[in-house]
């Protein structure tokens, strides 16, 4: 395994299970995250607007059966990714781990590009969450300037992250818990609703919706492929549990525990929820087209609650989506800050970003991340949002690039570990189905990345601007990689 001088500074943290912090010259990160924090952080990364908003559009595009197949395939891929990440993170628990793993086991240039790619991804994502949250708030207070709410929410995110890592962990714990309860209630209430329908009314709900019209597979393989791309975005964020490993009280125990729960969460929250939704709302229902924040009043979850007779459904789902956006932004600030801090400690970013406060917070990295997110959000307020849309397009593919880095790094990590004469039984956690897992994940990720520009390429005439926008994030990553060689 290749090491560098910067890697040597982290060496004690890699192997010392009882180390309370990462002992670096500019300050310490504190190992304050408990097992329940890591579990809920992983859950919070799974449940988001992709489920609350995007699931309806997926059913409309591919039918209920097509949506289930697409989400199941992506879910399996994410499970393999998480086991790969879990094996490396349990053995070497460091914050912002993706770029460090890639630098050590693949190529320093790849680590550099992956680190900045991941930081950029979350910095822009935070801006997107701020813009979406301002739309939600305007639903209740339409005459109040929306940008004010975005600044308030950004201040809340910064506050949670600036207090302590435990403050971030606690906030994510409760955010995730509320989202979990919402999905569980939805599934239970939906099943009861389906089972209690009688007479002609019963024909409108239940398994028959899976054979209605073109269902279960609307547009066949093409429909599944289209949703396959969308589903990938829905699961982005699950990898944050790897970023938290460096601040976990007991990463050798807690990281594997969180990873093992990923598959069952995906099964319960996505597969069960989409199945119930597909049985209650037919794929050609126009309400399912409402897959964005601007039309949250007609989101699939809202539609189901209205059918059941729950009048405050619109306000409830607005509040849940607002909470989801706050949670995603909160995690985004954390992930970007820790990634930037590690880049600085590996001499891949300005040195001042290495500074850590007494309570273990990289405040300079946090402030810089918040500034870039704020500036990115500001581009959505001026002109015709051209700059904002290009930033959004550039960040769209970055999550898949980060996943690619995880799978490739794990494949190389295991090879290097065995080549040095080690026994895999020494690993605190071993990924299932190696080497099939990382190979399978890598192939699917490449398919998703290549397929980003499918709609632009098949348009008549070809949408060259859309094609460039689809791969802009990939172009930036390649430039970073070549530039650091």
From TrEMBL:
Keywords of this entry: Amino-acid transport, Membrane, Transmembrane, Transmembrane helix, Transport
Membrane topology according to the record: Multi-pass membrane protein
InterPro entries: AA-permease/SLC12A_dom (IPR004841), Amino_acid_permease_CS (IPR004840), APC_YAT (IPR050524)
Domain Amino acid permease/ SLC12A as annotated: residue spans: 37-483
Subcellular location: Membrane
Species the sequence originates in: Basidiobolus meristosporus CBS 931.73
Positions of transmembrane segments: 38-59, 65-86, 122-141, 148-168, 174-195, 262-283, 303-328, 361-382, 388-411, 432-452, 464-483
GO cellular component labels: membrane
UniProt protein name: Lysine-specific permease
Pfam families, sorted: AA_permease
Domain of life from the UniProt record: Eukaryota
Principal place of residence: membrane
Record-level Gene Ontology MF annotations: amino acid transmembrane transporter activity
């Amino acid at each position: 395994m290749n090491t560098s001088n910067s890697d040597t500074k982290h060496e004690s943290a890699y192997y010392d299970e009882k180390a309370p912090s990462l002992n670096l010259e500019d300050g310490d990160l504190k190992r304050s995250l408990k097992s329940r924090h890591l579990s809920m952080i992983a859950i919070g990364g799974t449940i988001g607007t992709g489920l609350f908003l995007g699931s309806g559009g997926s059913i409309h595009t591919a039918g209920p059966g097509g949506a289930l197949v697409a989400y199941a395939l992506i879910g399996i891929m994410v499970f393999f990714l998480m086991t790969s990440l879990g094996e490396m993170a349990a053995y070497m628990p460091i914050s912002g781990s993706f770029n460090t793993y890639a630098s050590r086991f693949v190529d320093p240039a790849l680590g550099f590009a992956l680190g900045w790619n991941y930081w950029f991804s979350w910095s822009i994502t935070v801006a997107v969450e701020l813009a979406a949250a301002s739309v939600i708030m305007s639903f209740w207070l339409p005459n109040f300037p929306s940008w004010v709410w975005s600044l308030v929410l950004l201040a809340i995110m910064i506050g949670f992250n600036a207090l302590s890592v435990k403050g971030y962990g606690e906030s994510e714990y409760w955010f995730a818990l509320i989202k979990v309860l919402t999905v569980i209630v939805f599934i239970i209430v939906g099943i009861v609703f389906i089972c209690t329908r009688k007479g002609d009314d019963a024909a409108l709900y239940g398994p028959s919706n899976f054979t209605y019209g073109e269902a279960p597979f609307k547009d066949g393989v093409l429909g599944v492929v289209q949703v396959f791309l969308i589903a990938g975005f829905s699961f982005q964020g699950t990898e944050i549990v790897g970023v938290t490993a460096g601040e976990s009280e007991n990463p050798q125990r807690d990281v594997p525990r969180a990873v093992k729960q990923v598959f069952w969460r995906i099964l319960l929250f996505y597969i069960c929820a989409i199945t119930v939704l597909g049985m209650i709302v037919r794929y050609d229902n126009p309400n399912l087209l409402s897959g964005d924040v601007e039309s949250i009043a007609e989101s699939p979850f809202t539609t189901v609650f209205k059918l059941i007779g729950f009048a405050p459904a619109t306000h409830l789902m607005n509040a849940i989506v607002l909470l989801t956006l706050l949670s995603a932004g909160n995690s985004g600030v954390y992930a970007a800050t820790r990634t930037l801090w590690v880049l600085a400690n590996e001499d891949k970013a300005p040195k001042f970003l290495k500074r850590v406060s007494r309570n273990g917070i990289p405040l300079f990295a946090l402030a810089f991340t918040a500034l870039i997110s704020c500036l990115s959000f500001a581009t959505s307020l001026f002109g015709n949002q051209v700059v904002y849309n290009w930033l959004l397009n550039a960040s769209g593919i970055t999550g898949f690039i980060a996943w690619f880095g995880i799978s490739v790094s794990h494949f190389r990590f295991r090879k290097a570990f065995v080549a040095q004469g080690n026994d895999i039984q020494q690993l605190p956690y071993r990924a299932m189905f190696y080497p099939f897992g990382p190979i399978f994940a890598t192939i699917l990720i490449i398919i998703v990345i290549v397929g980003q520009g499918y709609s632009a390429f098949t348009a008549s005439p070809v949408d060259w601007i859309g094609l460039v926008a689809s791969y802009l994030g990939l172009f930036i990553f390649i430039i970073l990689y070549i530039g650091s060689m």
